[in-house]
Write a structure and sequence with these properties.
This protein is mainly beta. It has a single domain (10-330), classed as YVTN repeat-like/Quinoprotein amine dehydrogenase (Methylamine Dehydrogenase, Chain H). Helix content is 0%, strand content 57%. The chain is built from no helices and 28 strands. It has strands spanning 10-28, 31-36, 41-45, 53-57, 64-70, 73-78, 82-87, 92-98, 104-109, 115-120, 125-129, 135-139, 154-159, 165-170, 174-179, 185-190, 195-198, 204-207, 211-214, 220-226, 239-245, 250-255, 263-269, 275-281, 285-291, 296-303, 307-312, 317-330. The chain has a 6-stranded antiparallel β-sheet with strand order 4-3-2-1-28-27, with no helix packed on it. Strands 5-6-7-8 form a 4-stranded antiparallel β-sheet, with no helix packed on it. Strands 9-10-11-12 form a 4-stranded antiparallel β-sheet, with no helix packed on it. A hairpin with a 3-residue loop joins β6 (73-78) and β7. The model has no long low-confidence stretch (mean pLDDT 94).
Length: 332
């Protein structure tokens, strides 16, 4: 990438309706390989007709909530606990792994395409060799239960850019940074304000960290979620981002939001590390950019849906979510 987007000059350029909820995507050229609520990986040509599928990859049973790709290989993970390796060119199944005993919440892929990590409601993080499909190690350090003895979930996972570390995050806002070489914990800390427990009305909790990202130099770890919620039946709290200097266990930024409510489903650093993008939603959606030098919101806009995943290059931002695909481009 020779340049990068200027967040202050973006505008919503396209919005395409879909029938399903789109959770996670992998991008190859203009093709989006997107996991849906209908248990299908949808092969969508963004440059042609984003409302219609080129192909449908259908072997899962339940929400497809993880998609990563490298070369001609796609890996998908779903509510059924399975990971499926696909040949992108032929849409054929290469292999199927009964990877987890509960919902696979998310997948991540290392920068070199060698490793894939999966996280699940069984609270395990598995690291896989992408080419062979062999499990390299299991990382387990998050509690099965919340402090109130309810089931927890392992929502988010991210590789460091240098491939030396992996971060995981759960329902109560706990983050662990792991050494991939040894499988041991390198750091551990919690964003307490991203977890809400209602001990009176609903006897229930909500929140958790839904997204993680390392800065380009791997010094910082950003986490996205939601602030304290008054009514836990709804996502009625401001979107929240906290950034840590993870090796020092220090919080260096805390963006509590100013008007957009809901979960921060995905976060992305600028290639030069100057800003951070956060995207997500509740009933509606939002896109926000934070100036990391000034510690303030740089630019923000409504999204036409609750966004679950996003991809960007120096020409556009493509987001998928509740029954819609949205595209932001520089204003001309």
């Amino acid at each position: 990438m020779t340049s990068q987007l200027d967040p202050t000059k973006l505008k919503l350029a396209d919005s395409h309706a879909r029938k399903e909820i789109l959770f996670r995507m992998a991008v190859t050229g203009d093709r989006l390989l997107v996991g849906g609520s209908d248990a299908i990986v949808h092969d969508i040509d963004l440059a042609a007709e984003p409302t219609k599928d080129v192909r449908q990859l259908s072997e899962h049973r339940g929400y497809v909530s993880g998609c990563v790709a490298h070369g001609n290989t796609l890996i998908s993970g779903a509510y059924d606990g399975k990971l499926i390796w696909w040949n992108i060119e032929t849409a054929e199944v290469i292999q199927v792994k009964a990877a987890h005993c509960r919902w696979v919440r998310n997948l991540a892929i290392s920068n070199d395409g060698a490793l894939v990590a999966s996280v699940s409601d069984d609270m395990d993080c598995h690291v896989w060799d992408l080419q062979s499909g062999q499990k390299i190690r299991t990382l387990r350090g998050h509690a099965d239960k919340t402090p109130q003895h309810f089931p927890s979930m392992l929502y988010a996972v991210a590789f460091s850019n240098d491939g030396l570390h992996l971060a995981t995050a759960d329902r109560i806002g706990k983050m662990i940074v792991w050494s991939l070489e040894t499988g041991e914990k390198a750091a551990e800390f919690t964003a307490e304000k991203m977890y809400t427990w209602d001990p009176k009305q609903r006897i229930h909790s909500i929140g958790g960290i839904r997204s993680l990202a390392f800065s380009p130099d791997d010094r910082l770890l950003a986490s996205g979620g939601i602030g304290h919620i008054g009514n836990i039946d709804h996502l009625g709290a401001l979107a929240r981002v906290e950034i840590f200097d993870w090796s020092k266990n220090e919080r260096v930024h805390e963006f509590a939001g100013d008007k957009h409510k809901g979960l921060v489903e995905q976060i992305r650093f600028a290639p030069n590390g100057q800003w951070l993008m956060a995207i997500g939603g509740d009933n509606g959606g939002f896109i926000q950019f934070y100036d990391l030098e000034k510690g303030e919101i740089l630019w923000q806009d409504k999204a036409p849906m609750h966004v679950h995943d996003v991809w960007m290059d120096d020409q556009q931002i493509v987001a998928v979510g509740h029954q819609r695909i949205a595209v932001w481009k520089p204003a001309t």
